[in-house]
Design goal:
Elements (H helix, E strand, L loop, with lengths): L6 E4 L5 E4 L2 E3 L4 H12 L5 E2 H9 L7 H16 L8 E4 L2 E4 L4 E3 H14 L3 H13 L12 H27 L3 H14 L4 H13 L3 H19 L5 H12 L7
Parallel strand pairs: 1-7
Antiparallel strand pairs: 1-2, 2-3, 4-6, 5-6
Helix pairs in contact: 1-3, 2-3, 4-5, 4-6, 5-6, 6-8, 7-8, 8-9, 8-10
């Protein structure tokens, strides 16, 4: 059966596979974990032993290899009506996922984010990041167990935060200072040690005409870092502080 090309896998939230407009049930969380490992290594054969170790580590059940083979068989079965069962290939003791038939939202996110960084126009760059961030529906690979899923969650969360920071700087350049200050403050509550967010927050406060608040926020940040981490703010955050003291404001590079 000929492989279809309209299969879309979303992992920037709970995993969802859509084929020919139909949502496909990827099965139990551990079955989704098998799919995640294959996707993370798409185009390369993954040894059965590695799949077992990723799913259970030292707590593997009796006959773990047969359990993984069952998961793979079930994945093929749900893909078969769409001609996608052939996308999971095997050879003795190994499995491979052919990435060609699948559009993956994480790859689209990466492409849009990269294009935004290369786009010289502020409004055009922001539109690209609007589209990139709109792909997210929650925590990446939500509910999927295993070491690979956890690494991917961490990696994708980092990329999302980088994109959000770029997006906030663009909004500052477009004059959305008050909105950015409010949004950055909420993000700081969730990412206390993410120093670029403090740079954004102080800059947004300053450009909103809230110089005294910006200076007070810097003092609080300096005290927090000194007390909890025994470090001082980095040179970029210090530069933002100096700019506020001097009454000027520009994006830290």
């Amino acid at each position: 059966m000929k492989l279809l090309r309209n299969a879309r896998l979303t992992i920037l939230g709970p995993p969802v596979l859509t084929c020919a407009g139909a949502r496909v049930d990827l099965g139990t969380p551990q079955q989704q974990a098998v799919a995640t490992v294959l996707l993370a290594n798409a185009g390369s054969y993954v040894p059965l032993a590695r799949l077992v170790d990723d799913l259970w580590g030292p707590s593997a059940p009796s006959g773990p290899g047969s359990v993984v083979r069952t998961y793979v068989s079930r994945l093929r079965r749900v893909l078969a009506p769409f001609g996608l069962d052939q996308a999971i290939k095997s050879r003795p003791g190994c499995y491979l996922l052919d990435p060609v038939p699948f559009a993956v939202d994480a790859e689209e996110f990466d492409s849009l984010s990269t294009a935004a960084r290369r786009e010289p126009g502020v409004r055009a760059a922001k539109r690209l990041l609007d589209d990139a961030l709109a792909l997210w529906s929650g925590t990446a690979l939500a509910g999927v167990p295993g070491e690979t899923a956890e690494r991917e969650r961490s990696r994708l969360s980092r990329l999302r935060l980088d994109a959000v920071e770029d997006w906030l700087w663009l909004r500052i350049e477009l004059g959305e200072h008050r909105e950015v200050a409010a949004g950055a403050r909420l993000l700081i509550d969730e990412n206390r040690w993410e120093e670029p967010l403090y740079e954004i927050y102080l800059t947004a406060l300053h450009r909103s005409g809230r110089r005294a608040e910006a200076l007070a926020a810097y003092r609080s940040t300096r005290e927090l870092f000194s007390r909890e981490l025994e470090v001082v703010p980095g040179p970029r955050l210090q530069a933002v502080h100096e700019e506020i003291l001097a009454g000027v404001s520009r994006r830290a590079s």
